[in-house]
Amino acid sequence: MNKAIGKSGIVRALGAMSGTSLDGVDAALIETDGIRIHSFGASAYRAYTDTERELLREALGHWHGPAVNAAGAVIDAAHAELLAQFDEVDLVGFHGQTLAHEPRGRGTLQVGDGGALARALNRPVVWDFRSHDVAQGGEGAPLAPFFHFACAQWIKARAPLAFLNLGGVGNLTWVDPTRAAPEDKGALLAFDTGPANAPVNDLMQARLGQGMDRDGALAAQGQVASGALEQFLADPYFMRTPPKSLDRNDFAKVLELVTELSDADAAATLTAMCAVGVGRGMAHCPHPPERLLVTGGGRHNKVLMEMLRDNLDCPVDPVEIIGLDGDMLEAQAFAHLAVRVARGLPTSCPDTTGVRAAVAGGTLSHPPLVDMLR
Ligand SMILES: Nc1ncnc2c1ncn2[C@@H]1O[C@H](COP(=O)(O)OP(=O)(O)OP(=O)(O)O)[C@@H](O)[C@H]1O
Ligand SMILES: CC(=O)N[C@H]1[C@@H]2OC[C@@H](O2)[C@@H](O)[C@@H]1O[C@H](C)C(=O)O
């Protein structure tokens, strides 16, 4: 048995995620045996400084070279600083930062050195969660679905439901909570729905020097340009059968569809693109979900939430309605997945990433024995 897993099987796992919006690192503790969630614990956030964020931004889309190395150093230092604040941690799940993602081409790259973090924290660390899945023919994303399955069981759901994460990119997990295990055929279906906040953020930065359309205030003043929306939906991505995944900038070209529009109309139109992309995605679900639970920063955008309600036939609510923390769900997911990796349990399957067979993605690095005995 792995040293991090005691007799009860319950592990105090600390997960850390740095998402596509490059705002900072989220970290959260959960107690889990990798199958069932036992309890949720403390969480913390560390924002990147402007200098750090610029170094990360410069490395986006690169696979190797000095910019990638500099980004890796930022990720390692920021995580070591944040995660050191937590006590009594058995195991760490370290996602790192995705710099490039081309699962059917050059692969997927998350920077961050789990071995170095294990030494810095003197704790075992699971990291590099996506590359095994890609090597086995999978998309390498999304990976949160196995945790969403555990969340559905945690709330004792009885009917199919869906989780929607609205970060830079949107990803949806349809869950049948009546199945015994997440890797069972038909238990899950997962895929990236399309762009979420990334295009609106890019518009706000380019036109107004702001990082986001806070609460959807600008979009609320605008009109959606239906022609631009139709051109967006003509993208072949929406015809592809899931599982399927995206890189942050795969839909960067949508900004060209709104160049002639006013700031407010452009914001409204890019916001609507996220909602209609989710609407198209729902058609892929095996059965209509009873409800859609929204996580990630986009749930704070009132206009986006209204547009989702207009586009979907089920109730749409932030995950807080079932007692979860929508800012920390991804960090919690990588804590849970770390425990699964340590136990040799799968973290993805054909229905979540398209991988040939269920796979436990991730590398487990231990601190040197001398540190563990200290
Ligand atoms: N109050 C708000 N109003 C509108 N949008 C918001 C608000 N708060 C956050 N957001 C949006 O959510 C984004 C951050 O979301 P989140 O932290 O879930 O993304 P991420 O984890 O970095 O991305 P991903 O899940 O794609 O890896 C911000 O960049 C912004 O666009
Ligand atoms: C390659 C990569 O890092 N993908 C992220 C990204 O951000 C959202 C969406 O695109 C999702 O596919 C994934 O993250 C979440 C945490 C996941 O793997 O479930």
Notes on the protein architecture:
- The model has no long low-confidence stretch (mean pLDDT 95).
- This protein is an alpha/beta fold.
- It is globular.
- 33% of the residues lie in helices and 21% in strands.
- The chain starts with 10 loop residues before the first strand and ends with a helix.
- The structure holds adenosine-5'-triphosphate (ATP) and ligand AH0.
- Adenosine-5'-triphosphate binds at residues 19-21, 23, 165, 167-169, 197, 201, 212-216, 296-298, 300-301, 330.
- Adenosine-5'-triphosphate (ATP) binds at residues 19-21, 23, 165, 167-169, 197, 201, 212-216, 296-298, 300-301, 330.
- GO terms for molecular function: ATP binding; kinase activity; phosphotransferase activity, alcohol group as acceptor.
- Belongs to the anhydro-N-acetylmuramic acid kinase family.
- Pfam families: AnmK (PF03702).
Keywords for this entry:
374 residues; alpha/beta; Nucleotidyltransferase, domain 5; 2 domains; 7-stranded mixed beta sheet; 5-stranded mixed beta sheet; 33% helix; globular; binds adenosine-5'-triphosphate; binds the ligand CC(=O)N[C@H]1[C@@H]2OC[C@@H](O2)[C@@H](O)[C@@H]1O[C@H](C)C(=O)O; ATPase_NBD; ATP-binding; EC 2.7.1.170; carbohydrate metabolism
- Classified by CATH, the class of the largest domain is Alpha Beta
Radius of gyration: 20 Å
Distance between the termini: 21 Å
Give the averaged pLDDT, no decimals. 95
Q: How many strand segments?
A: 12
Shape: globular
Provide the fold topology.
Elements: E1 11-18, E2 24-32, E3 37-47, H1 50-59, H2 66-83, E4 91-102, E5 107-111, H3 114-121, E6 125-127, H4 131-135, H5 145-154, E7 161-166, E8 169-175, E9 188-195, H6 198-208, H7 226-233, H8 263-282, E10 292-295, H9 302-311, E11 316-318, H10 329-342, H11 350-353, E12 363-365, H12 369-372
Parallel strand pairs: 1-4, 4-6, 7-10, 10-11
Antiparallel strand pairs: 1-2, 2-3, 4-5, 6-12, 7-8, 8-9
Helix pairs in contact: 1-2, 2-3, 5-10, 6-8, 7-8, 8-9
Ligand AH0 is lined by residues 19-20, 98, 101, 108, 140-144, 165, 167, 169, 171, 192, 245, 330.
